């Protein structure tokens, strides 16, 4: 491994992309080697710093993802499912760590990461924060301790520009609750209630998605029974915590063997 870890950011113009650029530049353990955007994007060929509205960084934004990824030790990816799958193949070919914060991936799309993970280190998480991953562990434990007399509802709130629902974090919490109950989430998931839905099915795990304003991210896991409720909550007030988690994952992944990991592994919370 080089003295500092070389990082390529894909989707560099996005809100998270720009935050990741600034986070890498502020971390003495890392250095920026690539910034990637989609073909035809207005930033292609521009200096990254200038495009972001600041001083020049002597690094041009490129649409040649393969070359940019081949030059790095870790690629950090908060893009879209189809792009993430393509980047996973490139990262495996280059032998670099692929940190994935992309949400909205289907089970089939996630399954497509298995092949590149046999050749490279993939760290994928619906949420990169320490607090959310602790919440995930607590959700699993509480779900295991309570029977189906306690209905489980996951309520998530995000800004009005978020394009997927439920959020990746909400689904991660749902998976944890289902695992605690010893069931498959796909068999008990209840999303998008509208109209005359009938009574709630015992044992279902419900999801509610709220979109508005500039909410960074709020997640509640509610266990509701006759006469009592238990509510576990995480509130993110600063998006930079996701960037910090992604950088931690990029550093942790250096020297790891091929495989699929998540933030529980990175944070040492895996039981």
From TrEMBL:
Residues 6-128 form the Dihydrodipicolinate reductase N-terminal domain. This is 4-hydroxy-tetrahydrodipicolinate reductase. It is found in: Cytoplasm. Residues 131-267 form the Dihydrodipicolinate reductase C-terminal domain. Transmembrane segments: none annotated. NADP(+) binds at residue 38. Homotetramer. It is an enzyme of class 1 (oxidoreductase). It comes from Sulfitobacter albidus. Pathway: Amino-acid biosynthesis; L-lysine biosynthesis via DAP pathway; (S)-tetrahydrodipicolinate from L-aspartate: step 4/4. One of its GO terms (cellular component) is cytosol.
